[in-house]
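Appendix B, record 7
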Amino acid sequence: MAEAQPVEKAEKEAAQPGKKGGNGTRNRAAAILLVMVVVALVMGMWLWVRSKTHVETDNAFIESHVYAISSRVPGNVARVMVKDNQFVKKGDLLVELDQADYQLRMENYAAQLDLAKNETASTYAQVDAARAAVNSDRARLQQAELDLARGKALYQREVIPKEQLDKLETARKVAAARVLETEGSVRRALALLGLAGNGGKDAQIVRKKAELEESRRNLSYTRICAPADGYITRKSVEPGNNIQPGQPLMALVELNNTWITANYKEGQLAHMRPGQNVEFEVDTYPGKTFKGKVDSIMAGTGAAFSLLPPENATGNYVKVVQRIPVKILIDSSSDPDHLLRIGMSVVPTVLTERKLGDIMKDPFR
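Structure tokens (predicted):
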């Protein structure tokens, strides 16, 4: 019994240090848990504040001006100067049509203009001659009227017979008819020159000049040039093709003035304004950040301008969160090599620049 008591005492003493070690482990675990909770709260607070100051969406894509290249005149394609995906500058020749027919047509109208000028000079001479004839016939008419007046006076005195008086009256009528005829000749000549009524001077020459100018412009339309700097795509024309006006030949994509169409939810636009800075990433270039600015916010939702807009006045209305397109201009300095292409998916983030105090005043917006 004496030997058993020291053994039990030793066991109890050995158990005391183990108890102290278990309490220390629990304290360390509690401290770690507390730190994790604090970090989680801080991270949650940071993410919540960031969601109020950085508004982003993945429903966005790149757009740009796309020019549909077509001809204004029909013809046969003589040369095609570009190929798919080639970069061209404004004014560069893209397609050239056969100019032979248009050249001959322009020369024909030029010849007709010269003939019209000669005919006009001849018509001016006819007008002068007709006016001189009118003056002569009017003088004869005045003389016939004087002779008739004298004849009537002599007839009343029974100096001349009735037959002579009738001849004088006939002579006056003939002179009056002659004046009307020559005046008609003057009007016809003036009409040929375009000087009668409301017409302009030298109507024939003006018309021929217009025809010549039209043929000259049609000749210039045989050379189809680039309307802007950009890249050629969707080329569907080859030398020898017969084309018609308005027929699409190729498309030109302008990459110097691209923008983003971002479809934000209607609840994300409360603090979005034109001029705010934007940062965005492109799926094609992960890790690379581009910059831009908010240009404008569309005047309606995308559904409102769709082909079949929803009829909310009907009885089966179901509320759906709408999206409103926002136009974001891309900063050209962030894409000097034109890496971005239209149709690429992007994730833009609008920096609303809200302060923490403003957020805490209205935390639900």
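Remarks on this record: Residues 196-200 have pLDDT under 50 and may be disordered. The two ends are 80 Å apart (CA to CA).
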